[in-house]
C-alpha cells in the first residue's frame, strides 16, 4: 500500500516501490525463508546479521530466524526523534522501527564492541532503545530512495559489530547506506539490489565520498557522538590497534556466493565497493 507524507505543507501519496507491497503472510514467510537460508549457508560461523523491518515484515523475519537456528542477540528499537505525523487521527503516530541482531551459531564467539558503545553513551551501558533522527536532507544529495535509512543508524550497527576491513553484505542495498557507512569507516562492502536506478544512486553516493573532504564532513555530521571529532579520533585508534582482518563474509567465495543469490532471488545486478 502507498503511504502518506507531507511535502510543502500538502499531504501526498508516497509510492514506496513494488517490493514494499504485501502479497500475504505465506508469501512473506517464503521469501524470508529463501533469502535467510541462503545468507545462513554462505556466511562465516562467527558472523552476525542486522535486519530492519516494519511491522508488516519484522515478525515474520523473527519467526523464520528462529526456525533456521539463528540466535537472537537483541531487538533494537530505533525511536525516531522526528517521525512523520499521522494523518488519520485514528491511531498513534508510528515513530519506531525494529532492528533484529542475530548470530549464526550459538556456540561460536562473535564480535561486540561493548566498550565503544558504552563510551558513546556517556559511559553507561548502551540500551536497546536508540533515539536517532530520521534521514536528513543532505543524505539525499544523489537522488531519492523511498526508504533510505539514515547514516547515523547504520554507523552504530556497524561499529558495534565489525572490526576494520570487515566485509559487509547488504542483499537489499537500495541506495547503499550500509556501503557508504562501511566505506566511511574503513570496512569493505558488497551490495545487491534488483532496481538498477537504486544502484545508480549507490554508485553516485560512493563517488561522492571519494572526496576526502566530503567523507570528513559526512563523518562529522553523523549523530550519536558527543563531539564532532570523536569518530575521527576513534577510527585512528581503531586502525592502529586492529591489524588483523576480520571477514564476516567469506570474501574468497564472494563472487560465487553472490551468483547463487542472483539466481534464487532473481537479482539482476551486483554492485561492489572496496
Ligand atoms: C528497504 S529498501 C533498502 C534501503 C536501504 N537500506 C537504503 O538505505 O537505501 C529495500 C531494497 O530491497 C530491494 N529489493 C526488494 N526485493 C528484492 C529482491 N528480491 N532482490 C533484490 N533486491 C530487492 C528494493 O529494490 C529496495 O531497494
UniProtKB/TrEMBL annotation:
It holds the Pfam family N6_N4_Mtase. Keywords: Methyltransferase, Transferase. Its EC number is 2.1.1.-. The keyword Transferase applies. Residues 16-203 form the DNA methylase N-4/N-6 domain. Transmembrane segments: none annotated. It is an enzyme of class 2 (transferase). The keyword Nucleus does not apply. One of its GO terms (molecular function) is N-methyltransferase activity. SUPFAM superfamilies: S-adenosyl-L-methionine-dependent methyltransferases. One of its GO terms (biological process) is methylation. InterPro entries: DNA_methylase_N4/N6 (IPR002941), RM_Methyltransferase (IPR001091), SAM-dependent_MTases_sf (IPR029063). Belongs to the N(4)/N(6)-methyltransferase family. This is Methyltransferase. It comes from Candidatus Nitrosacidococcus tergens. The gene is mboIBM.
Amino acid at each position: 500500500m502507498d503511504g502518506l507524507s507531507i511535502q510543502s505543507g500538502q499531504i501526498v501519496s508516497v509510492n514506496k516501490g513494488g517490493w514494499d507491497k504485501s502479497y500475504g503472510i505465506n508469501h512473506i514467510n517464503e521469501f524470508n525463508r529463501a533469502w535467510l537460508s541462503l545468507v545462513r549457508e554462505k556466511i562465516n560461523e562467527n558472523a552476525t546479521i542486522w535486519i530492519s523491518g516494519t511491522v508488516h515484515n519484522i515478525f515474520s523475519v523473527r519467526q523464520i530466524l528462529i526456525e533456521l537456528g539463528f540466535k537472537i542477540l537483541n531487538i533494537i528499537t530505533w525511536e525516531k526523534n522526528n517521525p512523520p505525523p499521522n494523518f488519520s487521527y485514528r491511531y498513534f503516530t508510528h515513530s519506531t522501527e525494529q532492528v533484529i541482531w542475530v548470530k549464526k551459531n550459538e556456540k561460536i564467539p562473535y564480535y561486540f564492541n561493548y566498550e565503544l558503545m558504552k563510551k558513546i553513551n556517556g559511559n553507561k551501558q548502551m540500551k536497546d532503545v536508540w533515539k536517532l533522527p530520521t534521514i536528513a536532507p543532505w543524505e539525499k544529495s544523489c537522488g531519492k530512495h523511498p526508504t533510505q535509512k539514515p547514516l547515523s543508524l547504520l554507523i552504530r550497527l556497524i561499529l558495534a559489530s565489525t572490526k576494520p576491513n570487515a566485509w559487509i553484505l547488504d542483499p537489499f542495498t537500495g541506495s547503499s547506506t550500509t556501503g557508504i557507512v562501511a566505506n566511511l569507516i574503513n570496512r569493505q562492502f558488497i551490495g545487491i539490489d534488483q532496481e538498477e536506478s537504486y544502484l545508480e544512486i549507490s554508485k553516485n553516493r560512493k563517488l561522492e565520498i571519494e572526496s576526502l573532504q566530503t567523507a570528513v564532513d559526512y563523518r562529522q555530521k553523523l549523530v550519536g557522538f558527543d563531539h564532532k571529532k570523536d569518530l575521527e579520533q576513534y577510527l585512528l585508534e581503531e586502525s592502529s590497534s586492529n591489524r588483523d582482518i576480520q571477514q564476516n563474509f567469506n570474501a574468497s567465495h564472494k563472487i560465487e556466493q553472490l551468483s547463487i543469490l542472483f539466481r534464487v532471488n532473481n537479482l539482476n545486478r551486483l554492485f561492489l565497493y572496496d
